[in-house]
Amino acid sequence: MQSSNQSTGSGDSDTGGSHDVGYAATTEKPKLKKPPLYKVILVNDDYTPMDFVVDVLRSFFGMNVEKATQIMLKVHTEGKGVCGVYSKDVAETKAAQVNDYSRECEQPLLCSVEVDR
To answer: How far, in Å, CA of 69 to CA of 89, rounded?
Structure first.
């Protein structure tokens, strides 16, 4: 008789019997964290013409002339300016496109990406 009690006792814990301890049904949804956003930043230099910077902002970031001019002036006076805030992939792609285009046009304009805090 003792051996049948022992096997029944161990069988309950192995098969998930009614005496399971430590398991609770959860109905909470996992909390999802939004991915960080990234700023695309233009860096000032002493050689790139202002008109070229405005054209880049209009072409790659869809800005109107007024907004592009404001950003260009900020880059010129403060050393850098934010062109937009995007997901990581979009920000990196836009920065690479601007840098590639600048090199093709033989301009030293530099675009970088930083985490938006």
So the answer is: 26
Q: How far apart are the first and last CA of the chain?
A: 69
Query: 43-79 pLDDT, tens per residue?
Result: 999 999 999 999 999 999 999 999 999 999 999 999 9
Q: What is the pTM of this model?
A: 0.73
Domains of the chain: 49-115 (3.30.1390.10)
> In sequence order, what E strands does 49-109 have?
80-86
| Chain centre to alpha carbon of residue 111 | 16
Q: What is the DSSP letter of 22?
A: S
d(CA 80, CA 72): 9
